[in-house]
Every structure is written in C-alpha cells, then in structure tokens.
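> Could you send the Tr-type G domain-containing protein prediction when you get a chance?

Sure thing. Input:
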Amino acid sequence: MDPRDTAPDSWEQEDDVEATIDGQLEEAFTAFNVNAKPFVPNVNAVEFVPTFPMNEHSENLDSVVAVEKISSMDVLESAAPVENGDSERTTEEPWDQKEAEPNEEEPGGDSCGNRGPSEEAVTEEVAPEIIEEEEEAPAPKVPPTQPDAPKKEHVNVVFIGHVDAGKSTIGGQIMYLTGMVEKRTLEKYEREAKEKNRETWYLSWALDTNQEERDKGKTVEVGRAYFETDKKHFTILDAPGHKSFVPNMIGGASQADLAVLVISARKGEFETGFEKGGQTREHAMLAKTAGVKHLIVLVNKMDDPTVNWSLERYEECKEKLVPFLKKVGFNPKKDIHFMPCSGLTGANLKEPTDMCSWYTGLPFIPQLDSLPSFNRSTDGPVRLPIVDKYKDMGTVILGKLESGCISKAQQLVMMPNRHTVEVLSLLSDDVETDDAEPGENLKLRLKGIEEEEILPGFILCNAENLCHSGRTFDAQIVIIEHKSIICPGYNAVLHIHTCIEEVQITALICMVDKKTGDKSKTRPRFVKQDQVCIARLRTAGTICLETFKDFPQMGRFTLRDEGKTIAIGKVLKLVAERD
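Output:
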C-alpha cells in the first residue's frame, strides 16, 4: 500500500505529525478561491476537488488530493507517519507560490500542534479562518454598503391584494433584481417547483419559506425580506391574500409606511378580487386604517395572453378601483400611483419595458426611490409594538420602532406588565447595530423577562414616558359591512397596532353626521352599515393604546367578526377603571 494513503494508529500518539497535518490543512484552506460561496469545510469529507482551473495545476493536483485523503482517512488504518509528513511538505511550495497572496499571514499551525487537538478541533480552528476571509468577499446576499446601512432611510413596504394576485412573486422578483437572492438559489427553486408542476411559483418561494406555503402556493404568515436602492433601505412585508389569514395581514400592514396593492389584470381574476367577498377591497381599507399614507397599485400579470399589455384593460381596472379607493380615504391625486407590470418576467419592475410603450412613468423600484421622505420624530418617547417573540439564547422580540430611539444596554419597560428589561443586542433587518431610529424593523434580545411573559401587542417604552394601558375607551367607529344592526353588548375582535383582543361595545354614546361631523343629542339605540358613531368599548384583557390625537399609530383600530372586517375606528379618550 502506498505510504501516502495511510493514517497513523491513533491521533494522540503522533503529536508532531499532527502539527504538520494541521498546519498543512490550514494553509491549504486559506489558499482557496475566496470569492466562492460561503463554505464551512467538512474535514471528514470523502474527497475534495479544488476550485482552481484543472490544467494550470494538474501536476500538483495528485499531491493535493493526497493531503485530503490523509486528513479524511479512518483511524483504523496503520501508517508510516514520517513519509506522510514528507509527502505533504512537497505540496506546500506550489500552494504558497501560486495561490497565497504575499501579504497574507499563514495561520499558526503550531498553536494547533501544541494542543494536539482531535479532528473536530481542526475543523473549528479552520472554520473561523475561512469565515473571516469570506466576509471580505463581495457576497451578494448582504447589501453592499453594510457600514452605512443605518444612514439610509428605512421604508417598510407591505404587499397586499387578493389571493393569487402575484404578491410573493413580485417580492421574489424584486429581491432577484436587486441582488438579494442569487441566481443559483432561484434555479434550485425553479427545478423544485417544476417537479411539483408549479413552475410559475418559483419566485414566490424566496418569500414563502415554509413547506405548507410552498405546497399550496398560498402565503400564510407575513413574509419578510429587504432590499436596498441608492437612497433607501426597504423592508418587504409580504402579506397573505387569503381571507382566512386577514389577521396576519393586519399585523403586517400595521408595520408598513407604504402599501403596494397588487391586482391581477387577467380576465376574471381582477373581478373576483374586487367583488364583495374579494380581498382587494378589504385589504385597501385595512391598509388605510393601519395608517398607510401612500398606495402604489401594481396592475400585475400584464403579460398574460388574455391581457397582452392592453391599455384598455389597464384603464378598465383603474376606473373600477379609483372610486373605491377614494371612498376608503386615499386621495387619487396625491396618495395613489398606478403602474402596469409583470411579476413573473420582471417587466417594468426595475427597467422600463418595450412591451408597454403607452406607460411613460417610472418603473416600480425607481418610483419607490423617488417618493418623498417620511417625517418621523426621533426625540419622541420610545414606542415599539411587539409583533413576534421567540427564544434564542435569551428572549428575542421583533417589531417596528414607531417613535424614539433605542440603543444597546438601554433600560426599557415592557407594558402593560411593567417589566423592566435591558437591551442586550439590536438587529436592524438582520444587521447588528448599536442604536436604532424610528421606522426600522428590529430584533431585540432582552434581559430580565421570559419569553412566556410576552405577548404580541405588548409595547416596549422608556421608563420616563410609559404608554397608556387599560380596558375601557371611547372611540369613533365607522360601520363598514354588517348585515344586521349593532347594539350595546355586541362582541367582536379588536385589532389595534399589533394587538388582537376580544372587545365588547358596552354603550353607544352618539351618532356622528358623515358630512358635517355634528354629533346627535340623543343616544342611539343601534347603528347599522355605513353609519358613524361614538361608542364605549371594553376589552377582555388589559391592552396598550393611545388616543389617536396623541399617537396615531397606536390609536387606530379595526373590528372584525366572523372573518369579515365590520368597522374601523380611532380612539378618542381613555376611560379610567372604576374599581
């Protein structure tokens, strides 16, 4: 048997061989192509073929493979250790001359040798070296301007619309066009989707990550991703379109600054989304209630054979939508922007398309970039409504910072429980930072509170300025859709910022005239659809809320019942509890 192909009896005996093997392994590893994809080596792998061109290094390829074989041999085989060491030394020179850069330090082989570690330790020693090098490489996953990331304005964009309008597909396409998803990953998704006979779904898989969502092609939870343009940093919130998951969509919309209403131009699909039971209407209304000021309407699937980029169909969709959006409260001149696009082909998302010569405006991503900045108060009190929480080396919470600034090691208070917590670490869109400004989507690791003690809808505040909490409040509500009348004693589900709680209308105080805003002198006995009233509401448990006048983001709410949105409203006054 060739002495080079053998391994020593036991690793502990052969201390000196160990040192050379470790040293050689590390030299070999650091000289790889650093622009390759991030790669954590498995020293026990069977065989490794290097990434450099075969013909240049063919003469020393055999010796390199020998090195790998030595490192991966089973301990069972016997060895002639000295020759092993020699054979490896011969490979050292070509590696050094051809691959290693002159300014690169050789990772210390002797520190490994002194300890005489096991194979696992070798992997651990080598892995940090590789990871450090990888970070210098321009990996497409991470936005290119990492150090300056917080300086860009953060904008949260929620994609809303009827089920199957193409929200996740557009989200996936945008991530691909801005370089946040690699081509290889998408090719893999495409192959997997083809196997399931769903080849048009592959782009949505960038955002629909769990198996159930992929199998059915329906988003369930709000998908999150982010991309950057030259001026801004965008977080995509991909809301589910299905009517069973509207509560999740409300949670997503409550974090958004800007909504993108995706409608399908395909014959029949636009109509079903827009009819009474469709989600196009409900979502637009919920987005407005959640405080979204600006709406971009993307008329998707323009490449469909039934549409074929037809201006008539585009105008038809537009004519039907404008009156409705106006009724919801959007100003068609200032707040709404229509544009045609195709999520599957990516036409008119980043670059203008030739197919659509009649559209003269900016494509979607440049349009997002050109929107005016949002004015956010950095000096206000800290308010961070919690969207989600989980355990990961401590308690981690997710949410969007609505006002104020949070920094590392800051002491905050969790309302309504009044737990004092400390911020251990801050992640803004998965990038670690020391401080955060309003509008950023944050992950905070907290000390001083258990994960079980937190519920979505709790608020993180600063101790000097706590948010209000209570159970009873007066609010102005607009009944949007309800078949029968609503009387005191009516129960519904209240969605306010990220909080979901059962609520009862305990009293109707007065009616409000829609046109003049005058309040009635007498108490109404009931209210019905399309009427506006002021009512007293009482929740089942204590919740955090503010009046609409003081803090709009935490003073607007929706009432839902039997899977439908019944009313929208704003908090006028908080009522102190009577003991």
